[in-house]
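Lab channel / #folding
Pinned by the channel admin:
"Please post every new chain as: sequence first, then the structure tokens as a reply. Keep commentary short and put observations after the output so the thread stays searchable."

First post following the new format, from NK:
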Amino acid sequence: MRRRTVTAGSLEEILQATAPAPAPAPPAAPSAGAPARREEHALRTEFEFELPRGYVDEAGTLHRHGSMRLATARDELRPQIDLRVKENPAYLSVVLLSQVITRLGTVTDVHAGVVERMYATDVAFLQDFYRRVNSEGHTRAAVTCPHCDGGFEVDLSGGRLGES
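Reply from TO:
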């Protein structure tokens, strides 16, 4: 297999050159006589979380509740060409988390500087949360009680540290 090297001036040029074709128009609505098809499971793309310690902004306000969206391929590719990541590969998770966290308390502009100022405990929590949400697609886990063998689900995203 041959490798191809592409040179471009910026990430936007690369992404535009490799962008997929626009999606075709959706099919026409079914006729009145046909039964309506109902979607049973809608794709959940945003997940709520609560940080173990919380982010303290410049004004001294503590922010613990937030939301993270599902990552796209673009989210995972963009940090690879970031100069900060090239200089320090450990910075990749900071850049990646800053792209997928949509809200942190009242902070809606979550950028790399915000993630940098978070406590290490919270960054580790968010890295694990990112992995669970993007690889497994949900934050629920099936568990079995060791005493009664009863099965139930727990939501790993909410609650305080140690409750998951």
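NK: The radius of gyration is 21 Å.
TO: also worth noting, Residues 159-164 have pLDDT under 50 and may be disordered.
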